[in-house]
Specification:
It is a single chain. The protein is an alpha/beta fold. It is 37% helix and 20% strand. The strands form two sheets. It has an eight-stranded parallel barrel with strand order 1-2-3-4-5-6-7-8, surrounded by four helices. Strand 1, helix 1 and strand 2 form a beta-alpha-beta unit. The longest helix is centred in the C-terminal third of the chain and has 12 residues.
Length: 206
């Protein structure tokens, strides 16, 4: 199996962006969904992204925002990828792809497990992320259904991951990659450089 893809999400400072890149993260995430402690402006994300190498994805995270607004913000922020965390459709994803962005569609694990087989197959043709019911809350979920029948395409595991448990979860569930936010924070919304380094190291060891 290829080396685990690692995304560090909810970054807001040059120091934490540099730590994630230097540790070997494959992607860094900027949150544009309003109302959370990790939300940044497009201008701030663009400035932070200027120091990111071209081979590291810069991901804008949105939730139930109008697709026109998503495209405008993503362009202003100069991110390469848009992650959708709400009720967005395959049509929304196609609009983003037509606009030149890579995409990542997040589902709660519970919602994914209840999708009809045809819908699962349609989404699995792209890249998906399976998360807890409340994204960014650091809460794990019952992964037994995913272990029994994992997604067939590229997928990321998120929800309650930390440097201490990520290795075991990768070995058990075999995702293509992992996505972390609260698990590398010293307090809600405040990233810890040591935890970022430890998380990337633990994930890449698998």
């Amino acid at each position: 199996m290829a080396e685990t893809y690692v995304k560090i999400c909810g970054l807001r400072t040059p120091e934490t962006v540099a730590a994630a890149v230097d540790a070997g993260a494959d992607a860094i995430g900027f949150v544009f969904a309003p109302g959370g402690p990790r939300t940044v402006t497009a201008a701030a994300a663009r400035a932070l992204g200027e120091a990111v190498p071209a081979d590291v994805e810069t991901v804008g995270v949105f939730r139930n925002q109008p697709i026109g607004e998503v495209i405008a913000t993503a362009r202003a922020a100069a991110v390469t990828t848009v992650q959708l965390h709400g009720d967005e459709t395959r049509g929304d994803v196609r609009l983003l792809e037509d606009a030149g962005f890579r995409t990542l569609r997040a589902f709660s694990a519970d919602a994914y497990n209840t999708l009809p087989a045809d819908d699962k197959a349609d989404w699995e043709a792209g890249r998906i992320l399976l998360d807890a019911v409340e994204p960014g809350a650091g809460v794990t979920f019952d992964a037994s259904a995913i272990q029994a029948q994992p997604p067939r395409g590229f997928w990321l595991l998120a929800g309650g991951l930390t440097p201490s448990n990520v290795g075991t979860l990768i070995a058990t569930l075999r995702p293509h990659g992992v996505d972390v936010s609260s698990g590398v924070e010293s307090s809600r919304g405040v990233k810890d450089i040591g935890l970022i380094r430890a998380f990337v190291h633990a994930a890449k060891m698998q």
